């Protein structure tokens, strides 16, 4: 079954402000796979569960057209309001009933969204809309991000981060347990295409400390705690921020830190029709 989250306006605004998009290098890896398996032209990409559109915008640099879909009206509204690429069209749609014709798409992506879908139904739909030799890319990262800051031992910062993450683990969605990675592994094994690849990759991003905290606050486990006990959730963020600033010997939450994200992704190529 599909799981509906991230749909409120306030959450959509936080998603746009704090969520990091995949690196240009990671997107290039996806594009290179499409070129190797299918070849040009790159006419149409479909980004499913697009959120506020950060990943869709990256795809637009490589494809003539991008259709980006999400189940949340607030997310689509936010994406349209901040759209920067004229070749991206945003549509309200479920992942299990995609609004495109059969055999029309060169690349289907789901960036940090696939684990919320009805996965078997989505994979059937992706197969339907893909052209022969069209490609599927499923990307996500683990939530145990690591921090570094010049002049401060990373072990010290990451011990504080681990306390933050540990306080949130009881609030994970039951179907995710404590990480979505096994769900992706299961789906990777189940995809019947002969040409498929699993990748792990580190992505480093420099953000303000407040941006790191804000990103964690967009995660489903933090949102679950915030809904259940807003005072405890906000106190947890405040205490973690204070501990990190003290360890870094800084006075501003806008001090930059380097966030190390542990990405994993699946690439698969639909075979030619018999």
From TrEMBL:
GO terms for molecular function: S-adenosylmethionine-dependent methyltransferase activity. It comes from the Eukaryota. Pfam families: Methyltransf_11. CDD domains: AdoMet_MTases. Residues 46-137 form the Methyltransferase type domain. Gene3D superfamilies: Vaccinia Virus protein VP39. InterPro entries: Diverse_substrate_MTase (IPR051052), Methyltransf_11 (IPR013216), SAM-dependent_MTases_sf (IPR029063). Signal peptide: none annotated. PANTHER family: METHYLTRANSF_11 DOMAIN-CONTAINING PROTEIN, NOVEL PROTEIN-RELATED. This is Putative methyltransferase DDB_G0268948. It comes from Gadus morhua. The gene is LOC115533100.
């Amino acid at each position: 079954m599909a799981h509906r989250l991230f749909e409120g306006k306030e959450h959509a605004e936080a998603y746009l402000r704090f969520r990091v998009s995949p690196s240009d290098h990671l997107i290039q890896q996806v594009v290179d796979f499409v070129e190797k398996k299918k070849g040009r032209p790159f006419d149409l990409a479909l980004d499913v569960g697009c959120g506020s559109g950060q990943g869709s915008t990256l795809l637009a640099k490589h494809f003539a057209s991008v259709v980006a879909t999400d189940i949340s009206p607030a997310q689509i509204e936010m994406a349209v309001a901040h759209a920067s690429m004229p070749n991206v069209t945003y549509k309200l749609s479920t992942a299990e009933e995609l609004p495109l014709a059969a055999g029309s798409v060169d690349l289907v992506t789901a960036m940090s969204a696939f684990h919320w879908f009805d996965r078997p139904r989505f994979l059937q739909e992706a197969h339907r809309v893909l052209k022969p030799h069209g490609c599927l890319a499923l990307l996500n990262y683990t939530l145990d991000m690591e921090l570094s800051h010049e002049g401060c031992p990373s072990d010290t910062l990451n011990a504080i981060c681990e306390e933050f993450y540990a306080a949130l683990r009881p609030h994970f969605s039951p179907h995710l347990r404590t990480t979505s990675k096994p769900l992706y592994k299961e789906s990777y094994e189940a995809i019947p295409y002969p040409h498929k690849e699993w990748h792990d990759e580190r992505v480093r991003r420099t953000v303000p400390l407040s941006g790191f905290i804000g990103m964690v606050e967009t995660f489903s486990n933090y949102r679950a705690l915030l809904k259940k006990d807003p005072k405890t959730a906000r106190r947890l963020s405040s205490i973690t921020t204070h501990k990190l600033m003290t360890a870094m010997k800084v006075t501003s939450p806008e001090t930059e830190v380097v966030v190390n994200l542990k990405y994993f992704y699946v690439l698969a190529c639909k075979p030619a029709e018999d």
